[in-house]
């Protein structure tokens, strides 16, 4: 299992343990390029989570998606560790 795959599982398990509604966002035919890995609903807001290994970089499409979120004041987070998600949800 890669570092990124392991972190994706850790984030999902942590959110599930905390009872926070979360879901995978899967790339496929018709999906928006750069779609992040997970979505979650927390304190009345939708958050998008792009989960990356420590040295992983956002692709050009992911940067465009991140910018759309910024312009629309939608929460977008790059998660590189368990501590990153803990800092958001406690």
Give me some keywords for this one.
Trna Endonuclease, Chain: A, domain 1, 39% helix, alpha+beta, four-stranded mixed beta sheet, 90 residues, globular
Q: Strand count, sense and closure of the main sheet?
A: 4 strands, mixed
Mean pLDDT over the full residue set: 96
What's the helix count?
3
Would you report the number of β strands?
4
Q: Percent helix among the residues?
A: 25-40%
Shape type = globular
Which class do the helix and strand fractions yield?
alpha+beta
Strand content: 15-25%
CATH architecture: 3-Layer(aba) Sandwich
**Which strand order do you get reading across the main beta sheet?**
1-2-3-4
Could you give the distance between the termini? 27 Å
Question: Low-confidence segments, ≥5 residues, pLDDT <50?
Answer: none
The CATH C-level class name = Alpha Beta
CATH topology-level fold name: Trna Endonuclease, Chain: A, domain 1
User: How many whole angstroms does the radius of gyration measure?
Assistant: 13 Å
């Amino acid at each position: 299992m890669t570092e990124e795959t392991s972190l994706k599982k850790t984030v999902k398990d942590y959110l599930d343990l905390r009872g926070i509604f979360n879901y995978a966002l899967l790339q496929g035919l018709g999906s928006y390029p750069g779609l992040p890995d997970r979505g979650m609903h927390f304190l009345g807001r939708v958050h998008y989570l792009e989960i990356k290994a420590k040295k992983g970089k956002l692709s050009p499409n992911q940067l465009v998606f991140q910018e759309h979120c910024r312009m629309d004041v939608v929460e977008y987070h790059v998660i590189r560790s368990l501590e990153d998600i803990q800092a958001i949800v406690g």
